[in-house]
């Protein structure tokens, strides 16, 4: 086949583009330990800024280079602002909490970009040199793609020089290995973090500007890019530049040949690669085992039963919730039904994330599996709602058991990323396998039986299942199993030494969380009457994280409060302004800065302060 | 005749009736519209502008049934589950008489399902999926725009006139792309049994790896290419295709590429000679369209996009349907919308009684470069009713409960 060489080169060009984005992300993560969701937004800004600069410049190559460099510098500056204004304030917050802040930034930047540049995609007109090609093995190969192939290794080389030949680079490497030790030796962490963030943002801007000759500046770049970048960074090993480069090559080339051999599954391919790599190399290709951040070894406070006052408050809220159908109109009843679903969704994530210590970035997968289990049961065997509601947690639990077997070997961010990969695979199957799942068009006609058709009855059903589920999960936390699970989280080694089987404890946690979440998915579907792949998107998984973290990890009431606040806030904002993303994002950032331990955590602290003082 | 209490009550009742009618007559007809304003602004913002313009024009002429039109819009953020929730808000809280909207097919289907389960009329403007009025059609759902089938049908007809025998397809891998390719293959093979399909490319929606896709298509050595990519995917594909010479000496037939929403961003790289469906915009000479386009430009200082036409026609179609029904009661509305005729800037159309599909037509033509921008040339307008299959075929597709 004479097309092998051009296809390989195309893959290499793609790999270079991937590396440019991933390198910035991996450097930022290595030093600051922040999973930066807004990295894709920085690349999007790079593309837009690059467009604005370069459409004003002549189309010759030297001007192009100048424009690209100016773009990278400007994006780096934006990175600095971002770090100083937002992220600096949340470094002390618990791990993963910064992720929330960066997601808030994603939302804000979406609206800011739309407002500044408008809704239409903006392609950079290509000068003649950008359209040139070279004849390779009988095919025309774009000159610019050849340039891209060269840029990847060039950037890697420059970064390597920077990291190994400068004092700043040495400090960055030291901080990547052990940032507390670096701080203890008197290195100014603030400047280090700010400059690292600037470098990462600059690389994202560079990637955005260099993508312009092949594509356009558009509003979808942020979320498209961020998943690819996550995959590359994780496959390569977090914090490892060379690893990111190798992973880019692997994925870029596989992608190029995958398109020829298996054109229909390219979307899944990337995540399959990531899953396989993580199963065999739990720290990525070139990653080192993470040194535990020192704060993390201090055991999280033991969750105690709520004080009587809080219990009384909870009972009052429950009574109010039961009486709600007599108080509010039909629409608010559906919002409350959604809130019940959200509570179960959030509480189930809290179960594996708080006491279980396994932060899932793909919790929507269980939600979707539950929904599709109910929907397919209805479609294939005409199963009525009670059967669907029973099937959903069973199927989700069984799948969770299979998946759990892989995932419990990992820890920290690698574990989170494997859950993300799994959710993306589930999503892709639902989205692309039209014959079975109905694809994008979803499953329709999920009708509630006569007795539950009334909105009030269905609300009470949702309330009963959600509160019942939450109480059951709470009960498990105070059972011996719950204590064992928390022991495994706080110190796996000590837990093992007293004879606890850490891995099965964790698998059971995943199964329970998955089953409860599956139930919430089925409940949601019967509320809406239809099921779509959008139930399994990354943004839905992030919503679960938002609810749990906004509410607070340390209390059982946390995810419940988070779910209520988030559902209410989102509903009000969406209906009152076109700029809801901007407001929601800003509110999230503010909440993160104001309540680093979550709303419930802050309330608990204030409460305790009053008691103990 | 003794004056009984009953008589007095009856008389006062009938005396009061005109007042009651008047009271009802002054209440506006409320249209609750849901669309992807934040996730697909390029299409939906011009669409919303034109809807507002149409509402003002209808109201200036005295409204419908002597009542004014009122439009309430909501953003579904591209998520069908949000659309369903907001439909509940519009129906139960805002008491709208008609639901409308949707850009994405899945949002359209979700709203159709809501309409069927809650017995409320829903008029979809933009969603293209065939199943909305066929396999998943229901009594309460109508759809304005020409469907995937209709767009693919006219392109298959044009493709059959070409000498090309070896065809390759490239399409985003989801329901819209899959049914576009399915119909094109089926209809072209029916007209030209000598045609073979030599390969398919299925990039994921929104993340085409354009270089590799173009290279793979090149390796198939086709005479003709059928493309369903749109948006940023299309931009990437065209750039790589231009540089790598994929389109030279080949016929390309392409769905929706002639819409300014997708053609304009290609700028001076817009391909020449592709056979496309789309919208020629201000090049349309028909007096009704000239007046509409001039109004739109005056009002918004922008050129009318394809989305504008859909939004404008949608409001006019709803006004006509409500007028024909003579009431805003849902069951009467369904009967009124069936067979309702309405004027659009491109011609008179109808909601077919057999499947609730609007007969808004399709523009088909060739792409060309004028200065630094792509335009449609040699275009013609085909009435939607000439693109749809026979009534018996359609009846077989629709569930019995939908009629």
TrEMBL record, chain A:
Name the Gene Ontology molecular function terms of this record.
Answer: branched-chain amino acid transmembrane transporter activity
Domain of life where this protein originates = Bacteria
Q: Which UniProt keywords apply?
A: Amino-acid transport, Cell membrane, Membrane, Transmembrane, Transmembrane helix, Transport
Give membrane topology per the record: Multi-pass membrane protein
GO cellular component, as recorded: plasma membrane
Q: Does the keyword Cell membrane apply?
A: yes
Question: Is Cell membrane tagged as a keyword?
Answer: yes
Compartments, as annotated in UniProt: Cell membrane
Positions of transmembrane segments = 34-51, 63-87, 99-120, 141-163, 191-213, 225-251, 257-280, 310-328, 387-408, 415-434, 457-473, 504-524, 544-567, 579-603
Q: Name one GO biological process term.
A: amino acid transport
Per the UniProt record, one Pfam family is BPD_transp_2
Q: What is this protein called?
A: ABC transporter permease
Automatic annotation (TrEMBL), chain B:
Where are the bilayer-spanning segments? none
What the entry lists under Pfam families is as follows:
Peripla_BP_6 (PF13458)
Q: Tell me which Gene Ontology terms the entry assigns under biological process.
A: amino acid transport
Q: Which InterPro entries match?
A: BCAA_transport, Leu-bd, Leu_Ile_Val-bd, Peripla_BP_I
Please give the superkingdom of this protein's source.
Bacteria
Alphabetically sorted, this entry's keywords are: Amino-acid transport, Signal, Transport
The chain positions of domain Leucine-binding protein read 28-366
- Family under the similarity heading: Belongs to the leucine-binding protein family.
* Name of the protein this chain belongs to: ABC transporter substrate-binding protein
């Amino acid at each position: 086949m004479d097309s092998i060489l051009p296809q390989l080169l195309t893959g290499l060009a793609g790999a270079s583009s991937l590396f440019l984005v991933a390198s910035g992300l991996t450097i930022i993560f290595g030093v600051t330990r922040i999973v930066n969701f807004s990295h894709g937004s920085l690349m999007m800004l790079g593309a837009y800024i690059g467009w604005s600069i370069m459409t004003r410049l002549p189309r010759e190559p030297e001007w192009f280079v100048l424009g690209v460099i100016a773009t990278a510098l400007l994006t780096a500056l934006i990175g600095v602002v971002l770090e100083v204004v937002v992220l600096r304030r949340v470094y002390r917050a618990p791990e993963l909490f910064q992720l929330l802040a960066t997601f808030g930034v994603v939302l804000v930047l979406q609206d800011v970009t739309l407002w500044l540049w408008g809704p239409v995609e903006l392609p950079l007109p290509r000068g003649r040199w950008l359209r040139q090609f070279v004849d390779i093995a009988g095919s025309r190969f774009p000159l610019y793609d050849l340039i891209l192939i060269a840029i990847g290794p060039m950037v890697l080389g420059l970064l390597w020089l920077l990291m190994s030949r400068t004092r700043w680079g040495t400090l960055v490497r030291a901080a990547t290995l052990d940032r507390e030790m670096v701080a203890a030796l008197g290195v100014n962490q603030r400047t280090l973090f700010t400059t690292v963030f600037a470098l990462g943002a600059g690389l994202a801007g560079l990637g955005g500007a260099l993508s312009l000759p092949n594509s356009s500046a558009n509003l979808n770049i942020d979320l498209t890019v961020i998943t690819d970048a996550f995959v590359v960074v994780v496959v390569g090993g977090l914090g490892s530049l060379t690893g990111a480069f190798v992973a880019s090559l692997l994925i870029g080339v596989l992608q190029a040949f995958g398109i020829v051999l298996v054109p229909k599954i390219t979307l899944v391919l990337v995540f399959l690669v990531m899953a396989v790599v993580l199963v065999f190399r739990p720290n990525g290709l070139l990653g080192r085992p993470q040194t535990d951040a020192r704060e993390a070894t201090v055991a999280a406070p033991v969750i105690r039963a709520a004080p009587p006052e809080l219990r009384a408050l909870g009972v009052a809220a429950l009574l109010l919730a039961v009486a709600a159908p007599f108080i509010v109109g039909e629409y608010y009843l559906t919002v409350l039904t959604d809130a019940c679903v959200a509570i179960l969704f959030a509480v189930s994530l809290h179960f594996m994330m708080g006491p279980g210590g396994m932060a899932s970035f793909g919790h929507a997968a269980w939600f979707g599996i539950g929904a599709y289990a109910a929907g397919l049961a209805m479609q294939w065997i005409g199963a009525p709602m009670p059967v669907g509601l029973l099937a959903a947690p069973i199927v989700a639990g069984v799948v969770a058991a299979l998946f759990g077997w892989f995932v419990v070997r990992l820890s920290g961010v690698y574990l989170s990323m494997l859950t993300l990969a799994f959710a993306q695979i589930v999503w892709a199957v639902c989205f692309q396998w039209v014959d079975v799942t109905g694809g994008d068009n979803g499953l329709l006609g999920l009708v509630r039986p006569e007795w539950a058709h009334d909105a009030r009855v269905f609300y009470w059903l949702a309330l009963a299942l959600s509160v019942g589920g939450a109480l059951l999960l709470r009960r498990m936390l105070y059972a011996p199993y719950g204590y064992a699970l928390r022991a495994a989280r706080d110190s796996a080694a000590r837990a093992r030494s007293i004879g606890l089987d850490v891995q099965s404890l964790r698998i059971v946690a995943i199964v329970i969380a998955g089953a409860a979440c599956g139930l919430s998915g089925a409940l949601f579907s019967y509320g809406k009457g239809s099921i779509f792949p959008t139930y399994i998107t990354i943004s839905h998984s992030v919503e679960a994280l938002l609810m749990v973290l906004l509410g607070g990890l340390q209390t059982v009431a946390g995810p419940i409060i988070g779910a209520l606040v988030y559902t209410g806030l989102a509903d009000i904002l969406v209906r009152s302004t076109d700029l809801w993303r901007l407001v929601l994002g800003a509110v999230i950032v503010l909440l993160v800065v104001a309540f680093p331990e979550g709303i419930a955590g802050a309330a608990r602290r204030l409460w305790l302060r009053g008691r103990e003082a | 005749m003794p004056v009984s209490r009953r008589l007095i009550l009856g008389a006062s009742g009938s005396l009061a009736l005109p007042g009651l009618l008047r009271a009802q007559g002054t209440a506006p007809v409320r249209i609750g519209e849901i669309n992807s304003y934040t996730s697909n602004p390029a299409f939906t913002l011009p669409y919303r502008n034109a809807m507002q313009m149409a509402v003002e024009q209808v109201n200036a002429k005295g409204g419908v049934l002597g009542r004014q039109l009122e439009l309430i819009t909501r953003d579904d953020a591209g998520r069908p589950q949000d659309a369903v929730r907001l439909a509940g808000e519009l129906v139960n809280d805002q008491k709208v008489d008609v639901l409308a909207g949707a850009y994405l097919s899945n949002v359209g289907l979700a709203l159709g399902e809501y309409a069927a389960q809650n017995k409320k009329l829903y008029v979809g403007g933009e969603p293209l999926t065939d199943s909305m009025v066929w396999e998943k059609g229901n009594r309460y759902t109508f759809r304005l725009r020409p469907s995937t089938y209709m767009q693919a049908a006219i392109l298959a007809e044009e493709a059959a006139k070409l000498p090309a025998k070896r065809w390759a397809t490239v399409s985003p891998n989801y329901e819209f792309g899959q049914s576009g390719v399915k119909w094109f293959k089926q209809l072209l093979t029916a007209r030209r049994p000598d045609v073979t399909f030599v390969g398919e490319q299925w990039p994921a929606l929104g993340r085409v790896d354009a270089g590799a896709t173009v290279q793979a298509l090149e390796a198939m050595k086709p005479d003709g290419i059928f493309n369903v990519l749109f948006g940023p995917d299309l931009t990437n594909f065209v750039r790589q295709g231009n540089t790598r010479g994929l389109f030279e000496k080949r016929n390309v037939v392409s769905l929706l590429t002639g819409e300014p929403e997708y053609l304009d961003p290609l700028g001076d790289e817009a391909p020449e000679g592709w056979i496309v469906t789309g919208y020629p915009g201000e090049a349309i000479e028909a007096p009704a369209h000239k007046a509409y386009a001039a109004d739109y430009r005056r009002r918004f200082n922008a050129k009318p996009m394809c989305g504008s036409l859909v939004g404008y026609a949608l409001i006019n179609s709803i006004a006509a349907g409500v007028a024909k029904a003579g009431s805003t009661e849902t069951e009467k509305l369904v009967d009124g919308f069936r067979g309702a005729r309405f004027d659009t800037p491109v011609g008179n159309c109808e909601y077919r009684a057999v499947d609730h599909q609007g007969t808004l037509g399709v523009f088909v033509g060739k792409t060309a470069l004028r200065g630094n921008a792509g335009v449609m040339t040699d275009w013609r307008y085909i009435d939607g009713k000439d693109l749809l299959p026979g009534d018996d075929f359609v009846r077989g597709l629709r569930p019995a409960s939908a009629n």
